[in-house]
Write a structure and sequence with these properties.
Layout lengths: L11 H4 L3 H8 L17 H10 L5 H14 L3 H6 L2 H8 L6 H16 L5 H5 L6 H12 L8 H11 L9 H15 L1 H14 L17 H5 L15 E12 L2 E4 L16 E3 H4 L13 E4 L3 E5 L2 E11 L11 E3 L1 H4 L6 H10 L10 H11 L1
Parallel strand pairs: 1-6
Antiparallel strand pairs: 1-2, 1-3, 2-7, 4-6, 5-6
Helix pairs in contact: 2-12, 3-4, 3-7, 3-9, 9-12, 10-12, 11-12
């Protein structure tokens, strides 16, 4: 079922009117949320940081990161002048590290040129797609720019009884929503829709507590379970690898940050795919006098990837040249390096007693593959 603004649905300013008073009663106190929702936000930069952090990340996870970030980078100029390693250090653990790089690029542009005067100007900034730009515009500047993310699309689809994927109707839904934003306040209503989708209208809704339940077509028709439709997701790619921490008198062997890719901007331990390591076991014999440690493995889950991790540590008694693409890092510098969660976990193990699992032939093969 498609959707156009000419269909006989109630006007958005009428249908969504109960949201404003409901939101004033139940809204959570969030560190980036302004007390006064009738005027532009006193710190648009705080709105920008929060919305970029909230891309693909839940509110509860973002709050402590936001607070630490704002304490260290309180304004556009501070962020624009910061070093790349420090930025990624404060972002480490949030994932999607491209967001941190784009946020700094945006800070530099805004520090030099000032804030744009329209939605198109915001959308031209690095990392700000249609949703993030509209959310910043509504909350920071009180522009009636509809911001529809997964929560917003789900609320709209159920209210209007849309059987099809509501994202296909995104342009028309934004047009439909504009009068409600103008009538009830862009910042207030934008955040009210977010709050409703996150708390009362998640995939399994709490309709009895919802201020819009009487007007909700999906609720009336008993179709909230199938609206919006659940779209099939691609099966994550499965990989198995050895994550290897190698220490020598020269320090720890690490891979410097890459400009692109899954862990762009972050330091990482060398790794070897499981199938590549097994064949090198025989040649590992000269290294077996070195100290080897192993820990129980784990599964590291990314959006489109599941990695089965086998963590190892090896200490060499004599220095040697770093293999191509790797470098030796002094031990004192290790703790401050920005790393993703996977590599942080192995770094944390290094200071803990090992499980003293005997290194298998494959373990030694993995270490040797790294060293060569």
């Amino acid at each position: 079922m498609g959707f156009t603004v000419s269909m006989p649905f109630p006007a958005s300013e009428i249908l969504l009117a109960p949201l404003a008073p409901w939101f004033e009663q139940v809204k959570r106190r969030l560190p980036w949320r302004a007390e006064d929702l009738d005027h532009p936000h006193p710190d648009p930069y705080a709105v920008l940081v929060s919305e970029v952090m909230l891309q693909q990340t839940q509110v509860a996870t973002v709050i402590p990161y936001f607070q630490r970030w704002m304490a260290r980078f309180p304004d556009l100029a501070a962020l624009a002048a910061a070093g790349e390693d420090e930025i990624h250090g404060f972002w480490a653990g949030l994932g999607y590290y491209r967001r941190a790089r784009n946020l700094q690029l945006t800070a530099g542009i805004l520090a030099r040129q000032g804030w744009p005067a329209d939605l198109e100007g915001l959308m031209a900034l690095p990392g700000l797609g249609p949703y993030t730009a509209a959310a910043v515009a509504a909350q920071a500047f009180q522009w009636p720019t509809p911001a529809l993310d997964g929560n917003g699309f789900r609320v709209a689809a159920r209210l209007l009884g849309l059987e099809d994927d509501p994202r296909r109707a995104a342009p028309a839904l934004r047009v439909w929503l504009e009068p409600a934003l103008a009538a009830h306040g862009p910042s207030r209503l934008t955040q009210a829709i977010m709050e409703l989708g996150a708390t009362l209208c998640p995939p399994t809704p709490n309709c009895p507590a919802c201020p819009l339940s009487q007007a909700c077509r999906a609720h009336r028709e008993g179709s909230t379970g199938r609206i919006p439709p659940v779209l099939p997701r691609a099966k994550p790619k499965e990989t198995e690898l050895y994550l290897v921490a190698i220490e020598s008198p020269a320090g720890w062997l690490l891979r410097p940050p890459a400009k692109r890719g899954l862990l762009a901007g972050l330091w990482s331990w060398p790794w070897v795919l499981a199938g590549m390591a097994a064949g090198a076991a025989e040649d590992a014999l000269p290294y077996r006098a070195a100290q080897g440690r192993a820990w129980p493995g784990w599964v590291q889950v990314y959006t489109h990837l599941r990695q089965t991790i086998h963590p190892l540590a090896l200490r060499l008694e004599t220095p040697r040249a770093a293999p191509d693409g790797l470098c030796w890092v002094e031990p004192e510098a290790l703790a401050a390096l920005p790393m993703g969660k996977r590599d942080q976990r192995l770094r944390g193990h290094l200071g803990q007693p090992a499980s003293f699992l005997p290194l298998s032939s494959e373990d030694w093969g993995a270490a040797l593959t790294v060293l060569h």
